[in-house]
Specification:
The complex is a heterodimer of chains A (323) and B (513). With 323 residues, chain A is mostly helical. Chain A has 16 helices and no strands. Chain A starts with a helix and ends in a 7-residue tail after the last helix. Chain B is globular, with a radius of gyration of 25 Å. In chain B, 45% of the residues are buried. Classes of the chains: A mainly alpha (323), B alpha+beta (513).
Chain lengths: 323, 513
């Protein structure tokens, strides 16, 4: 019911303005604004639109001598290696599955932590907790791998040291693909919890105290305040972060998988994502054509996902949609 | 009037002509900067000092400065691909068979040099043997100035001899004694990992577990780097066999499984990233199933003499086990000129100096005499001060591609070991029939990429014995390989190999027992 009303409202505002025709008038009217737009425009032109010419690489057998337009055109030949190994489906599923898990679990925990922290009254405790949770964000995945390896190493790892001390059988984590599904999510959340939490915390700080005071006067308890004030007001931020994350869903978290799983083929079945697969396949003899075809495939699937999600959100509530 | 026009035309033509000739020939009066890149994972402390000394010399002699760089990256093949594809101007770059020399050459990453070499650097042209010029050719063009230092580069079994003596273990001479040695270490040194095998990748073999190299001691194959599970018999190179599906391969893998079950390497070995050399030098492992080359061994002896004077080590080169040694490939080490080079001719002159001029050679390889090294009366290389903390160790700039027998210096011990081993190998040396062969896989690169990926996923676990049922794992692996296009890839490789054997007229050889 609210949607048509809003649309009508929008139309009404537009018709109330003096009607101008054409882009030139618009340009004239908002000169300064357009000048301010130039740096952004140039930035995207140089970094995002011009490199798109390189998509053509995906359809050529690249050689250094002839370059981009001189190399022979081979049609869809370069895409062959992606499905030739019969892994395209499982790779795409892994990539999307992991990233959906990362995005949902991390965001929910970030919101939860942000709300809990915002409710704490001791400033010192709040600060310290916030820093401790934020700290892993600065740990590189290379270091994370060192930590993980020292925990799970069969012979000298921390975990097995503990297990054998309590008289239990040592556990071969690197030979058990199943648990890595969960471990990867845990590593991701461990590293990224703090960052998102701070974003949500900032939004919560921005919520006017009047709302809570009014709710308190009306007799709302803490849970009710969170349920009816904090969470609804956090929702726009949540959606924006979600949309940004979804845009990168096909390329998500290469570093994490590449560093932690490395060369361990036994784990590939459950931990291989498109990026690691492509990188591994092509690092032995870099082929510009095949790499570009893989990148193009990721972009197309990613584009499809984000437009779909955006359309769904738009249908629900236009104000939350990105475009 | 006509005369004026003619004069003008002539003038224009002359300008054009001089312009053209300036492009064709290197104008030595023009000062240029030569950019040179070598592989190598970290620069020694005084690297920049040596580089600037070199640059000063070149400024005087060749009117150019030298921008001398190391990759500073432990993954040199990846770094090299990125540098070559980025299109940044590079005048000289290290190249080698194991870093994909032939592949880059096929794709036109390097400049063909056969036309300018004899003219621009006649001394260098004459210094490199005709056989080597022939062997580095790809599609009929010379893309590399190969290193002429004769070298053997076999893998071998490296072990701690002091521990062997201490626990009275047998001397490793074959697989049985190697196994007995490992069992003895396992039983006597509970705090030590017996060996630190790990996953490794290099061209053209692809990703594998380092137990693979040990098998070089068993098989008399044309080369252990033949990919796709093919086996080419040295004695009869027209025979290309399917090794992965043979019973022998299964036996080998079961042996590795036995060793893995005995705990000779970590159950987490597939996730290990510590190099065996580091682990060995730190005393964490007692042996290494595949330690490379006599010079590597000789250098290790010298290093350990300083860091662990109480240790003794031994090395069993696999050539000795199979009584078949072949000298290194022509493309083992060398330098190429990328097509992005701005001054290819000056770059060749720089390279000629680095190889054929004693002062340039010694400065670039060993640093500044008196500061980093001295030459003893007997002509041996000696460190100034402590070897372990040297600011520019011997061959600190990783210039493996410019080594020249005439000017090379060795520490006394290193020289002795190298001479002994080379002497031994000479008794059973046979021609290197693999050198000069390069696979051109552009026709089946999609299948190859898919096949290599399956290999990366399944083979290392089998070679590491970290599978429950070896036979089952091999069956699954082979099946996946065929699904990915193994047959196409093998067919392409075999055809090219047989054509090469015929072109070169390689004959059957009888290998003495």
């Amino acid at each position: 019911m609210s949607r048509p009303e809003r649309m009508q409202g929008g139309a009404a505002v537009q018709s109330a303005l003096p009607r101008k025709k054409g882009f030139l008038d618009e340009l004239k009217r908002n000169k300064i604004l357009f000048v301010m737009l130039i740096p952004t425009f140039v930035y995207f032109l140089l970094n995002s639109y011009m490199p798109m010419v390189g998509i053509y690489f995906a359809f050529t057998r690249y050689n250094f001598r002839d370059g981009l337009f001189g190399s022979p055109f081979v049609g869809l030949e370069n895409f062959k290696f992606l499905y030739k190994s019969g892994k395209l489906f499982s790779l795409t599923a892994n990539t999307i599955g992991y990233n959906v898990a990362f995005i949902l679990i991390a965001n929910i925990l970030q919101v939860a932590m942000a709300i809990i922290l915002s409710r704490l009254s001791s400033k010192l405790f709040k600060r310290i907790t916030q820093s401790i949770i934020f700290l892993p964000y600065f740990v590189s995945y290379v270091i994370l791998n060192v930590i993980v390896y020292n925990i799970f190493n069969y012979e000298v790892g921390f975990l097995n040291g503990l297990l054998t001390r309590f008289g239990m059988e040592p556990y071969n984590a690197y030979g058990e693909p199943g648990i890595w599904r969960y471990l990867m999510v845990i590593f991701y959340v461990w590293k990224n919890l703090g960052y998102g939490m701070v974003v949500y915390l900032a939004t919560i700080t921005g919520i006017s105290n009047d709302l809570y005071e009014a709710a308190e006067i009306d007799g709302a308890n803490v849970i009710q305040q969170i349920r009816y004030i904090t969470i609804p007001l956090l929702f726009p931020t949540f959606v924006i972060l979600l949309m940004f994350a979804l845009g990168r869903i096909m390329r998500g978290q290469f570093d994490l998988f590449y560093q932690v799983i490395g060369n361990n083929g036994v784990l590939y079945e459950v931990t291989d994502i498109l990026d690691t697969f492509v990188f591994r396949t092509l690092k032995q003899d870099f082929d510009v054509g095949m790499s570009t075809s893989a990148g193009l495939f990721q972009s197309i699937v990613g584009f499809f996902i984000i437009t779909t999600v955006n359309a769904l959100i738009k249908r629900k509530d236009e104000a939350y949609a990105l475009f | 009037m006509t005369r004026k026009i003619l004069c003008a035309l002539l003038a224009i033509m002359m300008v054009l002509l001089t312009g053209a000739s300036a492009l064709a020939a290197d104008d030595m009066s023009k000062k240029v900067d030569i950019t040179m890149w070598m592989t190598g994972s970290s620069s020694p402390r005084d690297f920049d000092l040596v580089a600037s000394e070199l640059s000063k010399k070149f400024e005087q002699d060749l009117n150019c400065t030298l921008n001398f760089n190391l990759f500073n990256d432990s993954n040199s093949s990846q770094r090299m691909t990125l540098m070559l594809s980025s299109g940044e101007p590079i005048d000289l770059i290290y190249s080698a068979n194991y870093l994909g020399y032939a592949n880059f050459a096929h794709r036109g990453a390097y400049m063909p040099l056969e036309d300018i070499l004899p003219e621009v650097v006649p001394d260098l042209w004459n210094y490199v043997s005709e056989e080597f010029w022939e062997a580095v050719k790809v599609d009929g063009h010379i893309y590399m100035i190969p290193c002429m230092w004769p070298e053997y580069v076999p893998y071998g079994f490296l072990w701690r001899e002091d521990l062997r003596k201490q626990y009275d273990l047998p001397v490793p001479v074959d697989f049985e004694t190697i196994e007995a040695y490992m069992a003895g270490i396992k039983a006597n040194c509970p705090d030590m990992q017996v060996t630190g095998e790990l996953v490794s990748t290099y061209n053209p073999l692809g990703t594998h577990f380092t137990t693979w190299e040990l098998l070089d001691g068993k098989y008399q194959w044309a080369d252990y780097r033949v990919p796709y599970g093919l086996y080419i018999d040295y004695a009869d190179p027209t025979k290309v066999l399917n090794w992965w599906e043979s019973d022998e391969f299964r036996e080998d893998m079961k042996m590795f499984k036995r060793w893995a079950d005995a705990g000779y390497w970590s159950k987490s070995a597939l996730a290990t990233t510590e190099t065996k050399t580091d682990a060995f030098q730190a005393g964490k492992i007692a042996c290494d199933l595949g330690y490379n080359s006599p010079s590597g061994y000789a250098n290790l002896v010298a290093t350990l003499k300083n860091s662990h004077p109480d240790w003794e080590i031994g090395w069993l080169p696999f050539y000795r086990m199979k009584k078949l040694a072949t000298p290194n490939d022509a493309t083992q080490n060398g330098f190429s000129i990328p097509i992005t080079a701005e001054n290819p001719e000056r770059a060749l002159k720089v390279l000629e100096k680095l190889i054929l001029d004693k002062d340039y050679f010694r400065l670039s390889q060993y640093g500044i005499e008196g500061v980093h090294y001295t030459v003893s009366e007997e002509g041996f290389y000696e460190y100034v001060g402590d070897a372990a903390s040297s600011a520019f160790p011997r061959e600190g700039s990783r210039l493996w591609g410019t080594r020249n027998t005439e000017f090379m210096l060795y520490p006394e011990e290193t020289g002795k070991i190298l001479t002994e081993l080379n002497e031994e190998f000479s008794h059973y040396t046979y021609p290197n029939i693999w050198t000069g062969f390069d696979e051109d896989y552009t026709a089946y690169q999609a299948e190859r990429a898919a096949v290599m990926n399956v290999q990366t996923q399944y083979l290392p676990a089998i070679q590491a014995g970290l599978v429950e049922d070896v036979d089952k794992a091999i069956d699954e692996f082979i099946q996946k390989m065929y699904d990915a296009g193994l047959e196409t890839v093998r067919k392409g490789y075999t055809e090219q190999w047989l054509a090469y054997v015929e072109r070169k007229g390689i004959q059957k050889t009888v290998i003495a027992e």
